[in-house]
Amino acid sequence: MVGVFLKTNGSRAARLVIAAAAAAAVVGGTQASARAQERSCPSSTDAPYSMQLRALTGPQGADLTLAVAASAGCADVAALKKVQLKTFAADGSLDDVRNLDDVPAPGGVAGLELGQLERSRRIEADVLVQTGTPPRTYVLRGEATTRLRPDLVVAAVRAPLQTLTTRPVDVQAEIAELNGDTGATATVTLLWGPSVLGTAAVTVAAGGRASASFAGVALTTAAPVELSVLVSDVSPAETDVTNNGRGATVDVTAHELARSRVLVPSLGGYGAQLDQHVYAAVTPAPPGSLPGLEEKVKELEPQLVRIFFNEDQERDAGQLASFVETVELAHEAGATINITYQTAARAKLQPDRYMGEFAALLDDLVRTRGLTGVRWVTVQNEVNATAVTFDQYDALYRALDAHLSARGLRDHVRLMGGDLVRDKQRIWFQFMAEDMNDVLDAYSVHIYWNYWDTAFMESRLRDVRQIVSQELPPAAQKPVYVTESGVRGIQSLPGKPAIQPGYWADGTQLNRTNIAAFQQLWFDLASAQLGFTGAVKWDAYWGKYNPGYNAFYYMIGAPEEGWPLFPTYHATRLLLQTTQRGWQVLGLDPWTSDDWALGEADGPEQELTAYAGPDGELTLMGLDTRGASLNAASPETSSYSIGGLPPSTAFTLAVWNASASGENAVGGTVATNAAGVARFEVPLHAAFALTTVPVS
After folding, report:
1. In the chain, pLDDT over 90 holds for what percent of residues?
2. What angle do CA 566, 308, 533 make, to 5 degrees?
């Protein structure tokens, strides 16, 4: 709108100034020719024209807005023929009189500047409006009291302290009018730096408040984002424009702990297979060297250990003694122990006899020897790769169940079924779910992959998870364990003997490489993300399972080398030190309802898994999968940002392979901020544990 303002100087001389004024909508009406309107406008009427006055004041001075509206049939007003203004003092006495001629009033609105006036001063205006041909003159009178101009401020900005790069946020700004006399309209703008994220129009009553909402604001950079809210285009003009902004910080992260989503209610643990022949003559380990091995197994602190029992132990007293000593070692290391009845070639023909003898052995281990860590039993290794039939398998388990129950051991020793390889796994899962649901307490699978084909590793985990979670009846969806896992290398290289697990491209035996350790740790984390209760690596140390088969996947090398610790030992120990059996595995966002088939949707490269203890313990372990093929140091780092953590809390950052040595190191302390966000960097070839528990 356009108007005229009168400024006074010390001599009170008046001059015209054309400026912006009130909206033309104050006057309204449709335009028509002045002559046509004049013919229908009465020469004498109570109100052919009406006038409204608004006087606003502030530190910059006062102004008066005159808005003249024409009645129906009367010509619109474009100018005021004469204006007489009277200004009164605080005591009501006349203070000033001003007379103006031919004041422009486009749209019927004129604006006049009054100079410095205090609040609550009375203003009177006598106005002559002259319209038509020949002209007719109308006299209008009105008065107003000076009110303070509005003063809008951004009283508050409400936004979440933290969000994900994939989760838009809602931002709300509260706009307040402080002076209490005059309401105003304004534009509210939400900005991220110079970028406009949204605008909103608000109307704020005198002394009131109004909200401006910005829904679905996408913040896609994993960094603290400084948002700002600005008020502009205030009408009528306000007294103070220096208080029209306020900021808020939203900490945007790539990951967020989702405590409400429990992936594993009670972790069964991580660990390794222990060769039951390590104390027997079949394994040529010097007897004097075994204490060194035992010390390293105990320092590993395995949570879950698997040990074979087979016909060799039944026939050979030395091998039986070695088996018992191996169980004792696992028990002393604090592990939960699975005893796997490895071969059922004879037992399947006489299940009651052999399972009765096996139950007696378990009774001796648990009750007589006090090896109470024995909690799980599996009958027949990799049954879907053997000639054992469904009926024979069912008969073996039911016989063992009956004998354990008769001995009062069934509540202590639980039955795990499967140890399945990939071939025919679906029909075996379906059989166990339909025919053995009443006798089995858990399922188990074996998973191996080539180091250049990690996609197979993940697809195998997902396939098993889909079978159990989507294809079996809900009542048969039991905990699932990985009781053998390992990464293979190139099986045949020129000039190298054909051995398991094969070689890296440079000829290094794969289990001696950082690559094997990195991928094994990745596998353990991925299995937990997909709800697997526990995972066992094949296998813990050098040895022989029989005269023709060595344990080549070991984490602890041969005695002639001094039982050396390979990188996988250190990586696994970091996992074992910072988690415990019985803890929960928690989800991490971003996540969608379809991610059960894909693993936690924690980014295309970073794999993170969260573990929570009953007394507030918390560990997050992670790595960047781009490091899966790096055996040496990389100059590149991976930046992690994790929200949803306890605010203002110190975590220990422990790193495996920080210097590409394959060993563990404490990288210092990472403190979360007030928003519960932790930020840190880890070398691309390394893995980390961010934990509240002590790490050595």
Report:
1. 84
2. 70
| Per-residue pLDDT tens digits for 477-535 | 999 999 999 999 999 899 898 888 999 999 999 999 999 999 999 999 999 999 999 99
The average pLDDT across 133-143 equals: 89
Q: Is the pLDDT of residue 189 over 50?
A: yes
- Backbone dihedral region of 504: left (phi > 0), alpha (psi from -120 to 50 degrees) or beta? beta
Q: Tell me the C-alpha distance between 57 and 151, whole Å.
A: 12
Angle between helices 290-300 and 567-577 (to 10 degrees): 40
The helix or strand, by DSSP H or E, that contains position 528, with its residue range, turns out to be helix 514-529
pTM recorded for the entire structure = 0.85
pLDDT at residue 623 in the model: 98
CA 299 to chain centre: 34
Cis link prior to 134 (omega < 30° from 0)? yes
Please tell me the predicted confidence (pLDDT) of residue 547. Answer: 79
Q: For residue 152, what are its two tokens?
A: 């809008």
- What single-letter amino acid sits at 74? C
Structure-token pair, residue 471: 């294809």
Q: Classify residue 556 by its DSSP letter.
A: B
Q: Which two three-digit tokens encode residue 574?
A: 């970091």
| 32 in Cβ contact with 43 (< 8 Å) | no
Whole-angstrom distance, CA of residue 676 vs CA of residue 251: 9
8-state DSSP, 518: H
Sheet holding 109-115, edge to edge: 109-115, 62-70, 49-57, 147-148
Packing angle of the helix pair 317-332, 290-300 (nearest 10 deg): 40
Per-residue confidence band for 592, with pLDDT thresholds at 50, 70 and 90: low
User: Of 49, 51, 56, 50, nearest to 5 (Cα)?
Assistant: 56
Residue 491 identity (one-letter amino acid): Q
pLDDT of residue 276: 96
Concatenated DSSP letters for 113-156? Answer: EEES--TT-EEEEEEEEEETTTTEEEEEEEEEE-EEPP-EEEEE
Distances (CA, A) of 338 to 110, 208, 527, 600, 628: 93, 71, 19, 28, 30
Q: Tokens 């509540």 belong to which residue?
A: 411
Beta strands (DSSP E) in 165-294 are 169-177, 184-192, 195-204, 209-217, 224-235, 245-253, 255-264, 269-273
Do the Cβ atoms of 590 and 578 come closer than 8 Å?
Answer: no
The answer to whether the beta carbons of residues 684 and 630 sit under 8 Å apart is: yes
Residue 372, H or E segment: none
More confident residue, 497 or 152: 152
In this model, does residue 16 exceed pLDDT 70?
A: no
Q: Which amino acid is at 167?
A: R
pLDDT of 104 strictly over 90: yes
Instruction: Give tens-digit pLDDT for 157-188.
Output: 999 999 999 999 999 999 999 999 999 999 99
- Residue owning tokens 């099986």: 491
Q: Tell me, what's the pLDDT at 219?
A: 97
Both tokens of residue 643? 């929200």
> 616 burial class (0-12, 13-18, 19+ CB within 10 angstroms)?
exposed
Quick one: tokens of 356? 């009765």
**CA–CA gap between residue 391 and residue 427 (Å, rounded):** 13
Nearest to 53 by CA among 105, 130, 13: 105
The enclosing H or E element of 523 equals: helix 514-529
Structure confidence by residue, pLDDT tens digits, 331-373:
999 999 999 999 999 999 999 999 999 999 999 999 999 999 9
Give the CA diameter of the chain: 133
> What gap in Å lies between CA 146 and CA 111, rounded to an integer?
14
What are the backbone dihedrals phi and psi of residue 203, each rounded to the nearest 5 degrees, phi first? -125, 125
What are the φ and ψ backbone dihedral angles of 68, each rounded to 5 degrees?
-105, 130
With vertex at residue 12, the alpha carbon angle to CA 11 and CA 13, rounded to the nearest 5 degrees, is 90
Check residue 604 and give its pLDDT.
57
